[in-house]
Amino acid sequence: MKQRRRNKLLIESPASATGDIAFNLIVFFLVCASVQPDSGRKQTIPKAETVPEEKKETENISVDLTRTTVAINSEKVDVRRFPLLMRARLRDKKAPEDRVVVVKSAPEVPYDRWIDITAMIEDAGGIITLQLEEEREVTLPE
Amino acid sequence: MKIKRKVSQATVPSMAMGDIAFNLLIFFVILARAEDDSHLQWTAADAPNLENAGHSLVSVLVDKKNRLYLNGQEIGIAQLAGRVESLLGNRPVGERTVVLKIHTETQAQRFEPIIEAISEAGGDLVHILEDDKK
């Protein structure tokens, strides 16, 4: 009767390096996750200029924006109809200076609402420009 | 009778060199990124049809606490236009991208002067937003 003797040796990987490997993997994936590219929306806003008083009255479309309402040339409109109306008003305007839409926002308008409305204007072919209300402190003489 | 001393060679184990190099690399990558604004807390607004923002030298951020940051450093609105202008220098159009990260609940009285300042500095504005997949 033959008896076979087998020397079965268990070969284990060094367990002391497991911690290092795990740490390196964590750091690697952390760095990979943090370099994800951002996605966004380009917006061309004409460079701010001081406009002489007599040139202020132009035929540009104006959009008045509050937290709950939106108005085109002071006429309140439904937000769902806003893109259609804006497209209709910009249809015949070919020159870039005619496509300028002046956006006047109430101070409390949140950013997400502002982005929604300005995106609609740009999608309709408008060029956004902002009209800011400047706050100035006036010191009266005693 | 002379007894010979056993000379043992002390060498640096070369097996760990790869690990050391990798760790150094990661360390410097993280150090380089510490200057950006990834540590700041803000929530992006949702919008459809977004495009890749690309590479930008200048990042302007308004966080949840309404504080303004330029490339991760807190700044006042009065200095913003000048600082953005100096960072952009004489770069040609197309390389003047300024990424704007504004917390979704920030109000117009805060973010509109920021947009105006970037526009004044001649930056190409890119709003960083979250893709609305509704």
List the helices and strands and how they pair.
The complex is a heterodimer of chains A (142) and B (134).
Chain A: H1 18-34, E1 39-43, E2 61-65, E3 70-72, E4 75-77, H2 82-90, E5 100-105, H3 111-123, E6 127-130
Chain B: H1 17-33, E1 46-47, E2 51-52, E3 58-62, E4 68-70, E5 73-74, H2 77-88, E6 97-102, H3 108-120, E7 124-128, E8 130-131
Parallel strand pairs in B: 1-8, 3-6, 6-7
Antiparallel strand pairs in B: 3-4, 4-5
Helix pairs in contact in B: 2-3
Question: What are the defining features of this structure?
Answer:
heterodimer, A: alpha/beta, Nucleotidyltransferase, domain 5, five-stranded mixed beta sheet, 27% helix, disordered C terminus, B: 134 residues, 3 helices, 8 strands
Q: What does this protein look like?
A:
The complex is a heterodimer of chains A (142) and B (134). Chain A is built from 3 helices and 6 strands, in the order H-E-E-E-E-H-E-H-E. Chain A has 142 residues and is of the alpha/beta class. Chain A has helices spanning 18-34, 82-90, 111-123; strands spanning 39-43, 61-65, 70-72, 75-77, 100-105, 127-130. In chain A, strand 5 (100-105), helix 3 (111-123) and strand 6 (127-130) form a beta-alpha-beta unit. Chain A starts with 17 loop residues before the first helix and ends in a 12-residue tail after the last strand. Chain A has a 5-stranded mixed β-sheet, with helices on one face. Chain B is α/β, with parallel strands linked by helices and 134 residues long. The N and C termini of chain B lie far apart (92 Å). The mean pLDDT of chain B is 84.
